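Sequence design from tokenized structure. All designs in this work follow the same two-part layout: the structure record, then the generated sequence. An example of the structure record is given first.
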């Protein structure tokens, strides 16, 4: 596949690429810091009182949130290192970043959304299934969990921006695949 812009705009594209590279590497470190802070906050989240004890590990959604934040933080570190290395971008590297950014964006979004739903039920309860509001009894736990989920959604916003950058880098730099002249698109028509 040929790179687009190989005509007279080479130096202009290099300047754009260089400035995007300088912005992308630090931007990939931001969700790492957010993921680690949300992870540590949730890992230390437990409360014991007269009603019993509650820990993040008691709820599957919060365990999922911890694992998702850890995976995203690790990916952010590795991808920042790879992006910071000065080397030519290839089609396979662009596709790899695009796909991984998409997968991790949706993964961390799912973890944050599921945890937010659990927090909603912990705050409001659900009388239809006799789930009482737990945040009245475990307020400190719910406050720390809410903070962790909010930090996670800041990380989601960073991953959305990274996904946009990786899709821009992929789809603006490389030409579309060349169609085979012998193959055409067949369109079915229906008689009415």
């Amino acid at each position: 596949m040929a790179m687009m812009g190989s005509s007279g705009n080479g130096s202009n594209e290099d300047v754009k690429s260089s400035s995007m590279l300088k912005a992308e590497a630090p931007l990939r470190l931001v969700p790492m810091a957010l993921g680690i802070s949300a992870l540590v906050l949730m890992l230390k989240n437990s409360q014991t009182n007269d009603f019993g004890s509650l820990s993040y590990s008691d709820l599957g959604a919060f365990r999922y949130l911890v694992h998702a934040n850890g995976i995203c933080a690790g990916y952010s570190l590795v991808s920042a290192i790879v992006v910071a290395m000065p080397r030519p971008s290839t089609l396979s590297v662009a596709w790899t970043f695009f796909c991984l950014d998409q997968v991790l964006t949706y993964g961390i979004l799912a973890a944050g959304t599921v945890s937010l739903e659990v927090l909603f039920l912990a705050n409001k309860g659900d009388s239809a299934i006799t789930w009482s509001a737990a945040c009245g009894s475990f307020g400190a736990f719910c406050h720390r969990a809410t903070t962790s989920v909010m930090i996670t959604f800041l990380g989601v916003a960073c991953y959305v921006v990274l996904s946009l950058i990786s899709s821009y880098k992929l789809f603006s730099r490389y030409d579309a695949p060349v169609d085979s002249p012998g193959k055409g698109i067949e369109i079915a028509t229906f008689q009415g």
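The CA atoms of residues 136 and 159 lie 34 Å apart. We note this feature because it recurs in several other targets discussed in the main text.
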